[in-house]
């Protein structure tokens, strides 16, 4: 909806994390396509890395919960 809005137009309420906001488009600027592609790739890599860390953390937690670990340090010290 925001991409189709005209400058000065007030858009209907939009739900965000814990609230609703009303958006008014104050101005519109053309983007630099090359700069956008660079930033897009940086954001993509950052989000991918974040997701990989979440999945790896969940996997390690699951392995720990399922593991049958016996503490035998008392026999070595």
Automatic annotation (TrEMBL):
Please provide, alphabetically and separated by semicolons, the GO molecular function terms listed in this UniProt record.
peptidyl-prolyl cis-trans isomerase activity
> What InterPro entries does this protein's entry cite?
PPIase_dom_sf
Its protein name is: PpiC domain-containing protein
Q: Please name the source species.
A: marine metagenome
């Amino acid at each position: 909806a925001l991409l189709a809005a005209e400058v000065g137009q007030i858009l209907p309420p939009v739900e965000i994390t814990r609230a609703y906001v009303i958006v008014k488009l104050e101005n519109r600027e053309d983007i630099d396509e090359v700069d956008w592609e660079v930033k897009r790739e940086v954001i993509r890599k950052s989000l991918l890395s974040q997701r990989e860390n979440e999945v790896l953390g969940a996997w390690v937690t699951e392995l720990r919960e399922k593991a049958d670990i016996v503490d035998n340090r008392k026999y070595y010290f």
